[in-house]
Write a structure and sequence with these properties.
With 496 residues, the chain is an alpha+beta fold. Helices cover 46% and strands 10% of the residues. It has 20 helices and 13 strands. A hairpin with a 3-residue loop joins strand 11 and strand 12. Helix 12 packs across helix 17. It is globular.
Length: 496
């Protein structure tokens, strides 16, 4: 096996980042690696390395497929598997093996030319770094590129053309990738509150001397730093051994997100991947919509800084106006809605947003519901926003999937068929990220009125268009330096 934990050592991390961006390193479940390694043919002979690593790549491609709602059925066009194996049909055998071994489930909603194949991934315990060794196996070389001449939807074609305007900033991407991986390595949340040290200690039942990257680099030599990393690893291992099987959930070995951020990032860097309409929501899905938002900062758009204009609290805002719940309209407008949820749930604002989706996308819940967080959001809605609560409850009585599909279609009518189409017709470069549009910063004053007009046309009269800008190098530097101040001590280390 080529599971290589050495890739995560601080002294190896720069090399790991280079290998990752070159498609040589993937993150996959350990139990999948073990099962693939021991796979045999019908004659009892061990499967060849080329087949084994191809199967890991097929799993990775499925994991990075797009999905609508929270049903976890991932849409995958078969062309995405074409470049994995030297013989194209081999992927079907590998998918059948993954199904037989219980790693994925195949859906039955496929319609040729209408709806792509769907797969659902099963749960696993640990995620590990895997170094691809066979000469024919490389994640970068396995990326499929869409044939623009065969794209029928004009806005999908436009999106595919717009994606070609993104240019990566390799050194900056590596810095961001380093930060993200180190948060994952220590079991932290890159978007969470507090320092990495605070996050990890808060998540453990035993105090672990987790590395504080700011003070450690100021205080210790590299040898001392490496010893701290090794000692922390030993402490976490001892802690894991003292727990039962279901509690062993610490650090990079259990971060599911590691298995999915890689493919969209490589697709953006090497201008590959597909732009498609979601068959249920009418949203446009592309490598950009699948890209972890932290990595957006590592790209220029049309050789310029970019800005994302989106509707603040978009889905709750749409719900508020459809139900005419005046309190919810006001709270979304003042940006207090998610704060109210966070206070009621006693969680972070980011987690409150996830909890809202679990509530909105799920079925009506009774007191014995298993998802207690979604049930708590439902109770908050009933108490503080009774009109919206009744609208949602009645809407889901005929099927909760159909209800959320209608909300997402409403969003797409505004941002895809409304805003994006007008930008295309007026020659303004840009593309959608579901409830917003990304464009050159210099076009902000032109596009903002378009969004406002389309929102008004859809009956949304009280809302906020919120900008998110590509950060300047000084801003990015300050953010990175706070995390790792002496590894990159000069601002000119970031590509200019």
């Amino acid at each position: 096996m080529s599971v290589d934990y050495e890739l995560l050592k601080p002294e190896r991390l720069n090399d790991t980042l280079d290998r990752f961006l070159n498609g040589e390193v993937i993150f996959v479940p350990l139990d999948l690696v073990e099962r693939v390694h021991n796979a045999t043919s019908d004659t009892g002979r061990k499967k060849r390395q080329e087949w084994r690593e191809g199967t890991l790549l097929v799993w990775s491609i499925i994991k990075s497929g797009y999905y609508e709602g929270t049903n976890n059925w991932r849409y995958i066009h078969s062309a995405n598997f074409k470049r994995v194996n030297s013989r194209f049909p081999t992927y079907k055998e590998q998918i059948d093996w993954l199904i037989d071994e219980g790693f994925i489930e195949r859906g039955d909603s496929y319609q040729s030319g209408v709806r792509p194949k769907t797969f659902k991934l099963k749960q696993w315990r640990k995620t590990v770094p895997y170094l691809l060794e066979h000469e024919s196996k490389n994640l970068r070389q396995s990326l499929a590129k869409q044939d623009k001449d065969k794209i029928e939807d004009d806005l999908c074609l436009h999106t595919s053309e717009q994606l070609d305007l993104f240019t990566p900033q390799p050194k900056l991407l590596k810095l961001i990738l380093r930060k993200v991986l180190l948060f994952y390595l220590w079991g932290g949340d890159v978007r969470g509150e507090g320092t990495l040290k605070d996050q990890v200690i808060d998540g453990l039942n035993e105090k672990v001397d987790v590395l504080d990257w700011v003070t450690a680099y100021e205080r210790d030599s590299q040898d001392e730093l490496d010893e701290k990393v090794a000692e922390n690893a030993r402490k976490i291992e001892r802690l894991n051994k003292s727990r039962n099987e279901d509690q062993r959930e610490i650090g990079v070995l259990d971060k599911m997100s590691l298995t999915s951020f890689g493919l969209p990032l490589l697709k953006m860097v090497y201008q590959c991947g597909y732009s498609v309409r979601g068959p249920l929501s009418n949203r446009i899905f592309s490598p950009l919509t699948g890209l972890m938002k932290e990595f957006r900062q590592g790209f220029w758009f049309d050789k310029s800084p970019w800005t994302i204009l989106d509707c603040q609290c978009c889905q709750p805002t749409l719900l508020a106006h459809l139900s005419n719940d005046k309190q919810l309209i006001d709270d979304c407008f003042t940006d207090d809605y998610y704060d109210r949820l966070a206070e009621g749930l006693e969680v972070t604002r980011a987690r409150a947003k996830q909890a809202y989706c679990e509530y909105a996308y799920g079925q009506n819940r009774s007191e014995n519901a298993r998802n207690k967080t979604a049930l708590a959001v439902q109770s908050i809605m009933e108490k503080h926003y009774p009109t919206a609560h009744q609208f949602v409850w009645k809407g889901k009585e005929n099927g909760h999937k159909q209800f959320i599909r209608q909300l997402q279609q409403h969003e797409s009518e505004i941002f895809v068929d409304g805003v994006l189409r007008r930008m295309k017709d007026e020659g303004i470069n840009g593309l959608t990220i579901h409830d917003g549009v990304l464009l050159k910063t210099e076009d902000t004053d032109t596009v903002r009125p378009i969004i406002e007009e389309e929102m008004e046309r859809a009956g949304i009269h009280k809302f906020v268009v919120k900008p998110e800008h590509k950060k300047t190098y000084d801003e990015m530097w300050d953010e990175i330096a706070l995390f790792d101040p002496t590894k990159y001590p000069r601002k000119d280390a970031v590509e200019g």
